[in-house]
Amino acid sequence: MWTSVLGQTGASIPPVTPGILLVFAIVAVALVLFVAEPLPIDIVAVGVLVALVVLEPWTRVDPTTGVSGFSSPATITVLAMFVLSEGIRRSGLINIVGAAVAERFGDSHLKQLLAVLGISGGTAGLINNTPVVAIMIPMVNTISKKTGISPSKLLMPVSFVAMLGGTLTLIGTSTNILASDVSARLIGHPFSMFEFTQLGVLVLVTGTVYIATIGRYLLPERITVDEELIEEFEMAEYLTEVVVREDSPLVGRTVNQVLQDTDLDVDVVQLVRGDQVFSEPLARKEVRPDDVFVIRTDRSSLLELLDAEGLDLAPDAEVTEETLDVEDAAMEPEDDQSLVEVVLSPEASIVGETLETTNFRNRYDATVLAIRRGGQVIHARMDERRLRGGDTLLIQASDDTIRRFGNDRNFVLARELTRPDFRRSRIPVAVGIVLGVVALAALEVMPILISALAGMVAMVATGCVKPTEVYESVDWSVVFLLAGLIPLGVAMERTGGAEWLASVVVVGTAGLAPIVVLGVFYLFTSLITNVVSNNASVVLMIPVAVDTAEAIGAEPFSFVLAVTFAASTALMTPIGYQTNLMVYGPGGYRFGDFIRVGAPLQAILTVVTTLGIVHWWGV
Fold it and tell me: For the segment 346-403, what is each residue's pLDDT rounded down to a tens digit?
């Protein structure tokens, strides 16, 4: 009742209770941890859950409510959708379409751009946009190699449009599914499958037109396509060849012993012994006189190494990409060595670890030569650097090892378009299952939760996804993030924190038309989602938006939609959304590139989305 009076009379803001203060303090700490990331965000979310339950007398979140997020329809639906997306990914459908695009539209930058945007945006409406972008990265690099167009001109648009494509349907993103759950709890209005598709089409078309016109001129060209990987990663000063002298103290020791005993920043990349060339695994190779090593090190370490370890520079110490790309007739084809870029997925298990703590060299039989983090290339002391999602690793490995990287969801191969293990015969089945899930939910034959679980079972039963791949296909960090944050939204409601914030908004926007307030909510949500999780933005902002709408006599569902759509537009930072992180390294982007390209689009979408909501749902 107080809300309607407040909206009409301009009553003062209600007092702040200890419960509200405590919940706000938990929110503030969580937001700081989300941005700083001293811990993974899913662990932070579980920590929020624990804090809310421990402080139940003030937060009003009992243990049953605290763990309710794990059984929430939103959480279970998102989990099932990951398996459905995996079925499409394993079929190779998107790769086949991508290969056709590379072949057909290789003569025009604009045609390439529109083609990749169409694939990325259209596909993201039906399957999770993270695997879509993972598939698009090598496709874009293949197109770039063929046509000479910098991948920097294509990768950011792919990420942006994949985000916008997620607004086409209920299952487009985990954000939509979570928002539907919160909307059902607060105003009794969950989203239907195509509830906001018309608005999603408007948003997607607006974003595509912007990128194809204004945006493509703002996109930088950070990576030159005609460069070899050695040049692209600025390796000329860090790779050289050395010869082992007969009096060297290294003779008779294994490569692994040599590397363990030295404090210098050095890696052995390759061993040449007469006509034989050896690459990973090198750990057990015994050093002999006249062995030639290709090593990665800096100049000062090289001088110290030559002096202390009985080594000489090789007569021709220049290392080229051909030096490292080894095709030896005496070797099995799968043992041929080559350079390749590997992108670390944001949800990879080794994020936060170092190359040393993960024992990367022995674990993967691959040598990391450099790390590209956005526009920065890291050469020195790489073993001590904590790995981040989106890091691009320049590695040398055998073809067999590279294939293993391609099959590992922790990594995205940046230079390979096809893989031999696609289940192409399952394409019609996988597509049919996804369409069946959508149809059953759209026709209200069964809830999306049940149809998605049925689709998951069907994917396994038909061989589209193997039983052992089910758990690997789920991004468990998202599942735990959702489960941990859902009780936070409940605490905001039960303590009155959402109502208090709504009163502040109402007082602060007194005299403004409801459509302006709606636009303010969209803009504010879109700004905070650039630095915190999009799911966190939805959980925090929808309760406030609903209370504000009720306070000013506006349509609550319109405000729910504004927050939901804004949470899917993290366009101004590489850290705002997983897909931005995934293209950050491969595109060689700088942090400011996202602001330059994304900020104008963010402003345009604020106006377009607000007007679209008012047109179709009123305010």
Answer: 878 888 888 888 888 888 888 888 888 877 888 777 877 888 888 888 888 888 888 8
Contact 96, 517 (CB under 8 A): no
d(CA 196, CA 34): 29
Cβ neighbours around 120 below 10 Å, total: 30
CB 596 within 8 A of CB 558: no
Same domain, 214 and 94: yes
Domain membership flag for residue 65: no
For every residue of 67-129, DSSP letters joined together read: TGGGG-HHHHHHHHHHHHHHHHHHHTHHHHHHHHHHHHSTT-HHHHHHHHHHHHHHHTTTS-H
Q: Which amino acid is at 134?
A: A
Do 589 and 510 have their domain in common? yes
Sheet strand arrangement including 266-273 = 276-278, 266-273, 292-297, 239-244, 311-313
Q: What is the SS3 assignment for 345?
A: coil
Whether pTM > 0.85 for this model: the answer is no
Is 323 a domain residue?
no
| Placement of tokens 């007007």 in the chain | 611
Number of H helices, E strands in the chain: 29, 10
316-353 pLDDT tens trace: 656 666 566 655 444 444 556 778 888 888 878 888 88
Show Cβ contacts of residue 218 under 8 Å, excluding neighbours closer than 6 positions. 596, 597, 600
Q: How far is CA 332 from CA 324, 336, 364, in A?
A: 17, 7, 18
Token couple for 539? 């959980």
* Phi/psi at 105 (5° precision): -115, 30
Could you give the maximum distance between any two Cα atoms of the chain, in Å?
93
Tell me the angle at which helices 197-210 and 152-165 cross, rounded to the nearest 10 degrees.
Answer: 170
**Of 514, 503, 606, which Cα lies nearest the Cα of 556?**
514
C-beta of residue 170 within 8 angstroms of C-beta of residue 191:
yes
**Three-state secondary structure call for residue 368:** strand
Closest CA to 415 of 42, 138, 119, 90: 138
Provide the residue range defining the domain that includes 312.
236-318
Is residue 543 domain-shared with residue 436, that is, in the same domain?
no
Which secondary-structure segment (H or E) carries 413? strand 411-413
Q: Is 279 left (phi over 0), alpha (psi -120 to 50) or beta?
A: beta
Residues 83 and 188 in one domain: yes
pLDDT average, residue stretch 602-608 = 96
Strands (E), 211-301: 239-244, 266-273, 276-278, 292-297
Any domain includes 509:
yes
- How far apart are alpha carbons 549 and 556 in whole angstroms? 5
> Residues 207-211: contacts with CB within 8 Å, 24+ apart?
207/121, 207/160, 207/161, 207/164, 207/601, 207/605, 208/114, 208/117, 208/118, 208/121, 208/161, 208/164, 210/600, 210/601, 210/604, 211/113, 211/117, 211/157, 211/160, 211/161, 211/601
Q: 542-567: string of b/e by CB count within 10 Å (b at 16+)?
A: bbbbbbbbbbbebbbbbbbbbbbbbb
